[in-house]
Amino acid sequence: MNVAVVGIGRIGLPVATKIASNGHRVFGCDINTELVGKVNRGENPLPDEAGLGELLKQVVAGGNFQATTDTIAAVAECETVLFAVAVDVDESGRADLRNLFSAAEDVARGMKPGTLCIFDTTLPIGTTRRELAPRLESNGMKLGRDFSVAFSPERLLMGRVIEDLTKYPKVVGGVDPAGGDRAAAFYREVFGGQVLQLANAETAELSKLAEGAYRDLNIALANELAQVADVHGVDISEVLQAANSQPYSHLHVPGTGVGGHCIPVYPRFLMQGEGPSSLSARGRQVNDEMPAYAVHRVEELLGGLADKKVLILGLTFRPNVAVTPHTNAVDLLREFSARGARVWGHDPLLSEAGTRELGFDPAPEPLAGYDVAVVHAYHRQYAALDWANVARLIVDARNALDRREVESRGARYLGIGRPATPA
What we know:
Blueprint: E1 2-6, H1 12-21, E2 25-29, H2 33-40, H3 52-61, E3 65-68, H4 71-76, E4 80-83, E5 88-89, E6 95-96, H5 98-110, E7 115-119, H6 127-136, E8 147-151, H7 161-167, E9 170-174, H8 179-190, E10 195-197, H9 201-232, H10 236-243, H11 266-271, H12 278-288, H13 290-302, E11 309-313, H14 329-338, E12 342-346, H15 352-357, E13 361-362, E14 370-375, H16 387-390, E15 391-396, H17 403-408, E16 412-415
Parallel strand pairs: 1-2, 1-4, 2-3, 4-7, 7-8, 9-10, 11-12, 11-14, 12-13, 14-15, 15-16
Antiparallel strand pairs: 5-6, 8-9
């Protein structure tokens, strides 16, 4: 089978590589010429993606995978087209679909009769049918007669995409009557895992938004409970351990907000559509306010932040993955700076230029002599730090550290919803 994967970024590249490794001929289509060249040389542009490097070398060397900037020509050779083009939100908080629209229009110019198009990008409900399918008809072919369309959301965690491709059921929903059946058969063939075929694309679109909204709201609840714990001087980690010992409670861990491509974004797709979304909006508000709340706690604890030296450790949105969209590290920078602190940033996964692009002055080595160090993303490289040398106060922004280890080194500890070490 010949397959075109349109968009070979954080999700599309490992998906394309895995399909190619199962014996199919895959074209990875992207407008980034540097990325295309690197992939065609068998060089892995995502070194933090587990299992990708060796697999990519194999499929490129074996001739099963080729990257290209000529989407139209690649699609003309394929029976199936997967869209893995990232969708973010614009300045108004609505889905920014421009890149996906452009990709669909390119595919329409190369698509041959009988093609199956699957949108593997999370979308507002109804987008596949109302916005994308008509663009695929722009070159004269007719949906349901000449080609089929389905929606199948990614259910993957960056850093372990290849593992997750078969770890969770693949959800599909068709736009035309044959779309769902064909998409389900396609995924069973290329991945071999379980497939859940839903009634239509809209059902599948809502199922993915439901996953994201659940996680965002769960984190928002944990963050509110952490603030209650602070009022009463109790430790939220003990509260969560006790509550989650009951099988119907699955509370997440509080922290300084939510970052990344997914959880801060997908609830906004609900908020822009038809139907009630006040709960999603409230969850977004709670989580967006957490960086300011955490910095305020530090300010109160220290009696002010003017001229205090602050280090933010880990600028990516989560540990051990070099991804920065919507990272709360930049929110912490803004809040500390607004209170007069001097702030530096450090991340072993980012270059100095990448650190500066986020607005930070890169922290000089060795990491020592700060008044406050905020562990925003607890990368594995930080496990060996001598906390007392780094800073007098260690702020555990994700409640990821061992409190006793920090205190045993002679540093004060402050977690989200956890009492500070006495001075």
